[in-house]
Specification:
Structural class: alpha/beta
Radius of gyration: 23 Å
Strand order of the largest sheet: 16-17-18-15-14-20-21
CATH class of the largest domain: Alpha Beta
CATH superfamily of the largest domain: Aldehyde Dehydrogenase, Chain A, domain 1
Largest sheet: 7 strands, mixed
Number of helices: 15
Distance between the termini: 66 Å
CATH architecture of the largest domain: 3-Layer(aba) Sandwich
Number of domains: 2
Length: 493
């Protein structure tokens, strides 16, 4: 809103009369069942020990469903079903026929997109517009993409004999449950492997709906099995002797344990772990565009993104102006009901994660960083955290070195290219980075020298099935997506 008096230049007043009427999405299309069993050998099966856990809506703290807990016997059943399907049917099927099944899954996902988007938001807390416009379409696109590769493996790996590995054990995180499942399942099926997948305990529902879609697509029994449970279930899966490949996306701590467990075995392993992405703004960057990129880089999905641009490096000459614009933009972000189409920042995924974020906020204050928090209203119920900026952050600060995994941005400054490269690489992680500048030569220089698996230029957090994704150092190894995403699931000779 602009106020103007005679002889006075109009100014933009943020958070004044900009009111949005609520635009809630209905939860009815989600059609969430009261109870979910294990999906093993093409059918729903009760857990042997009849254990269940509750999955809740983080925005309301209401129970959504009771979900089965897989025991060791259940894991054995799932792996056996996957092995039988692999040996008797799936490995012998032509690539063209495998591609038809994968394509069918993608089409049904599109048909049920609204249901999946609402379920993703209810179970995970992310804004409905993100689930609707990003998560579900991108997940379906990954199945479409790898359906196309299924009969072209000879062209993907020319002059090499390509064979599948066998049974893949896959563990997905809670921040992008359906998308991560697509990243893992689609290339595994395209290359002739069968799958046992365990979704995160706090967000299992869209993966279980994917099991319904797999049934509807008439995928042969046992080709994809989905088991639910806590971290213990994941340990049983990774340690199972009849698994040929483990793909894990999650925390660096758990990834290290998995790597240690599999050391000395014949199992293949890919790890996509934590990150502390550097988003670098040079003085010649398009400032307003860069502000939007920074906002999307850190506050997308409440900051629950392993490649989030959680470290912002701004060149000193524009730092004051840029931070002022960033604070103005922060004031416009709407925090609240994830089911409201106007919401920009939804609910933190769990109470434990909210407590972790709050502890890092206190650490940042104690370390002497300048604290700025958006003055927005948040609901009284549920797990919510307003967007936060820390400026005057030291390079050695814990909030600049450790992954917070929430809507918290650390701002640092630099003078030269060499300085910012050294600072950006000075972290245990190496997953992502962003570069904002008008000079192409500078972009190429930084992309060569930054130790990050994914680097965006004049944008941030854009994904495509064609592009590989993965990291260096403590961010893991291996790539998912693109042609590179086929390599972890094949044996070449």
């Amino acid at each position: 809103m602009a106020k103007q008096k005679k002889g006075i230049k109009p100014t933009l007043i943020w958070n004044s009369n900009w009111e949005y009427s609520p635009a809630p999405e209905s939860a009815k299309p989600a059609a969430i069942a009261k109870k979910y069993e294990l999906f093993i050998d093409g059918k729903w099966q009760q857990p042997v020990e009849k254990g269940y856990f509750k999955t809740i809506n983080p925005a309301t703290e209401e129970v959504l469903s009771d979900v089965a807990t897989a025991s060791k016997k259940d894991v054995d059943k799932a792996v056996t079903a996957a092995r039988n399907a692999y040996e008797k049917y799936w490995r012998k099927l032509s690539g063209a026929e495998r591609g038809k099944y994968i394509f069918r899954i993608a089409r049904i996902m599109q048909e049920r997109a609204r249901e999946l988007a609402i379920t993703e938001t209810l179970d995970g807390g992310k804004p409905i517009k993100e689930s609707r416009d990003f998560d579900i379409p991108t997940a379906a696109n990954h199945f479409f993409y790898y359906a196309g590769w299924a009969d072209k493996l000879a062209y993907a790996f020319p002059n090499q004999k390509v064979s599948s590995l066998g049974v893949a054990g896959q563990i997905t995180p809670w921040n992008f449950p359906l998308l991560m499942a697509a990243w893992k399942i689609a290339p595994a099926l395209a290359t002739g492997n069968t799958v046992v997948l365990k979704p995160a305990e706090t967000t299992p529902l869209t993966t279980l709906k994917l099991a319904e879609i797999i049934q509807e697509a008439d995928l042969p029994p046992g080709v994809v099995n989905i088991i639910t449970g806590s971290g213990e279930t994941g340990v049983m899966l990774t340690q199972h002797p009849n698994i040929n490949k483990i793909a894990f996306t999650g925390s660096t701590e758990v990834g290290k344990l998995i790597q240690a467990t599999l050391a000395g075995t014949s199992k293949k392993l890919t790890l996509e772990l934590g990150g502390k992405g550097a988003n670098i703004i040079f003085e010649d960057a398009p400032i307003d565009q860069a502000v939007e990129g920074v906002i999307n880089g850190i506050f997308f999905n409440q900051g629950h993104v392993c490649c989030a641009g959680s470290r912002l490096y701004v060149q000193e000459s524009i730092a004051k102006t840029f931070i002022a614009k960033l604070k103005d933009r922060l004031a416009t972000l709407r925090v609240g009901d994830p089911m409201d189409k106007n919401t920009d920042i939804g609910a933190i995924n769990s109470f434990q994660q909210l407590k972790s974020i709050q502890s890092y906020i206190e650490i940042g204050k104690k370390e002497g960083a300048s604290f700025y928090q958006s003055k927005c209203k948040i609901p009284n119920q549920g797990y919510f955290c307003p967007p936060i900026l820390f400026s005057n952050v030291a390079q050695s600060s814990r909030i600049a070195q450790e992954e917070i995994f929430g809507p918290v941005l650390c701002i640092l400054t630099f003078r030269t290219e060499d300085e910012v490269i050294e600072k950006a690489n000075n972290t245990p992680y190496g997953l992502s980075a962003g570069v904002w500048t008008d000079k192409g030569a500078r972009i190429f220089n930084l992309t060569k020298r930054l130790r990050a698996g994914v680097i965006w230029a004049n944008t941030y957090n854009l994904f495509d099935p064609v592009s590989p994704f993965g990291g260096y150092k403590e961010s893991g190894f291996g790539r998912e997506g693109g042609l590179h995403g086929l390599y972890p699931y094949v044996q070449l000779s």
